[in-house]
Amino acid sequence: MARTMSSVRRGAAELVAPARATPHEFKPLSDIDDQEGLRFYRSGLFLYRRRAAMDGVDPAAVLRAALAEALVHYYPLAGRIVEASPGRKLLVECTGEGAVFVAAESGVAMDELGEVTGPPVPRHEELLCAADGAYADGGVVGRPLLYFQVTRMRCGGFVWGLQICHCLADAAGVAQFMTAVGEFARGVPGAPTVKPVWARELLSARRPPLPRDVAAPRHPEYEAVPDAGRDKVSHSDALVHRPFFFSRREIAAPARARAAVAGLPELAARAMEEGHLQSVADLMAARGRPRFAVARTYVVSDLTRSGLDGVDVGWGAPAYGGPATATLATFHVAGRRSGDGEEGVEVPIRLPAPAMERMVVEVARELGGVDAHTEACLAARL
After folding, report:
1. Of 94, 107, 169, 328, which has fewest CB within 10 angstroms of its CB?
2. Family assignment (predicted)?
């Protein structure tokens, strides 16, 4: 178990503006980007170990300068969101005000955080200058869109934490931006090697809207769940956390599990078709940008190919790069099994304690790792 981290000593927060002048303009978000369910800040943490060749180099100074350069190209991130009325349409006013940056010091070594393979990262609230939940009202309008904290550790390593408005970027977008910052930090010629493209109009509602007599795909993910108020929901403090690791061999092996998800790949492929995406944008505009259903809904984010674990800012690839916190949704992150280093996928899950006990048995049974006696003993306790 990781030892408790001593208090992090944060410096004063400052705004880092683009290194050079950028256009002042308004950029509308797409009708998918500005839906209610994305109006919050998503957090990530990147843990870098000491590199002897970089001794004496201040990572906070390096990343501050690199951030200013990256914001020249990704200048909407230096702006602020405004909400148009009526319709609650979100736009980015590219003001060039900048992103929030904090340099911090910690009196502990990286190893004292324990082996971090997935969220939640121990003591994440001390490694982020604006922790998850800081904006309880869910507001993103008029606030900085990006927050950075660079925490220098006693061992010579450091932790790079970020909070970013989810309306502007998903995991792939965050990885692209962070990679650009890393390229400037390393002095890569011609950085950024991947140029940003806005093109939000590709995910906007049709003008005029789809006629009512034209059949459109159903979207149950945005429909109200009947009798949701009768559900018994556990408080987050009563939930337990456990990561499940699946090796490539285990993922390929269980025939029963493949049978249980028969048809899901086809549904996933259909969801990526242009007509399906367009119909989501139409729905957002027609229904006032509703939040996706939360009750009886399980959200999965596959980050195994996001590139977050490969962001190099001059200290090599991070020991961990990915989400800072775990929620009722799950993040699938690339990982290695502790001990033998076997590659696979880690799935952190939070559940009430009795449900977690049952989950452990069900997963083990699918993988052939539980006998009938163990299962019967557990069943008697539930």
Report:
1. 107
2. Belongs to the plant acyltransferase family.
Q: Which spans in the chain are helix H?
A: 59-73, 124-127, 171-186, 248-252, 255-260, 264-271, 274-286, 353-366, 372-381
Decide if 381 contacts 282 (C-beta within 8 A).
no
170 flagged as catalytic: no
Flag whether 230 is in a domain: no
Annotated catalytic, 373? no
Provide the token pair at 361.
Answer: 């048995």
Task: Check residue 333 and report its DSSP letter.
Answer: E
Name the domain count of the chain: 1
* Residue 308 included in any domain: yes
Contact between 81 and 9 under an 8 Å Cβ cutoff? The reply is: no
Residue 260 contacts by C-beta under 8 Å, 6 or more apart in sequence? none
Q: Would you state the structure tokens that stand for residue 172, as one six-digit string?
A: 């792939």
| Residue 195 belongs to domain with CATH number | 3.30.559.10
- Give every CB contact of residue 284 below 8 A, 6+ residues apart in sequence: 31, 32, 34, 35, 205, 290
Q: Give the whole-angstrom CA distance, residue 167 versus residue 164.
A: 9
**In this structure, are residues 138 and 74 in contact, taking their beta carbons and an 8 Å threshold?**
no
Tell me if the bond preceding 122 is cis, omega within 30° of 0. Answer: no
CA neighbor of 163 nearest in space, from 180, 176, 144: 144
* Helical segments of 157-233, H only: 171-186
Instruction: Report pTM.
Output: 0.85
Check 33, 34, 282, 312 and give the catalytic one: 312
Which of 72-76, 130-134, 146-150, 214-218 comes out lowest in average pLDDT?
Answer: 130-134
Can you tell me whether residue 149 is helix, strand or coil?
Answer: strand
Residues facing 247 on adjacent strands: 344
- Containing domain of residue 66, as a range? 1-211+237-382
Model confidence pLDDT, tens digit, residues 127-142: 998 644 445 455 899 9
Active site residue: 31, 34, 166, 309, which one? Answer: 166
Strands, E, within the chain: which ranges?
9-10, 14-16, 26-28, 41-48, 80-83, 90-93, 99-105, 146-152, 158-165, 239-247, 300-302, 320-323, 330-336, 343-352
> Per the domain annotation, does 265 fall within a domain?
yes
